[in-house]
Amino acid sequence: SEPFDDAAPAVGLYEIQEQSITDRGKLEGENMIGVQEAILPNAPKVKGVGAGGGFGGAAGTKKTTTSALKAQAKSHAKVLREDGVVRIDGVLSDSVADD
Q1: CA–CA separation, 61 vs 87, rounded Å?
Q2: Which of 19, 20, 46, 93 is most buried as measured by Cβ atoms within 10 A of its Cβ?
């Protein structure tokens, strides 16, 4: 192997990572040219999940049960497997989404 050359410019891992991210963004931007269709949010239709809360559900409560969350997750996973991407609105708070 060659000895370390002190005169050679040092390229750190951070710079390499930043260049890779930039290159990936350019590639994705080029791939999106001409794409006019927006990704629509996935709105899973899950039995028993709705405003009424199903049999015995308390009126007016917005608490989401564990089983309802699992059913929604299955629906999102199905779309992700089929389309390779899934849009879920309202996941991030406004302050996080704006950053």
Answers
A1: 26
A2: 46
How many angstroms separate the CA atoms of 34 and 53, rounded? 43
> Phi and psi of 41, rounded to 5°?
-70, 145
pLDDT tier for residue 11 given thresholds of 50, 70 and 90:
confident
pTM, two decimal places:
0.45
Find the radius of gyration of the CA atoms of the chain: 23
Residue 92 tokens read as: 């991030």
Question: Is the distance from CB of 86 to CB of 79 less than 8 angstroms?
Answer: yes
Q: For residues 68 and 15, give the distance between their C-alpha atoms in angstroms, rounded to a whole number.
A: 45
Output helix, strand, coil percentages for the chain, rounded to the nearest 5.
40, 0, 55
| Non-local CB neighbours of 41 within 8 Å, separated by 6+ positions | 87, 88, 89
Residue range 65-84: mean pLDDT, rounded: 88
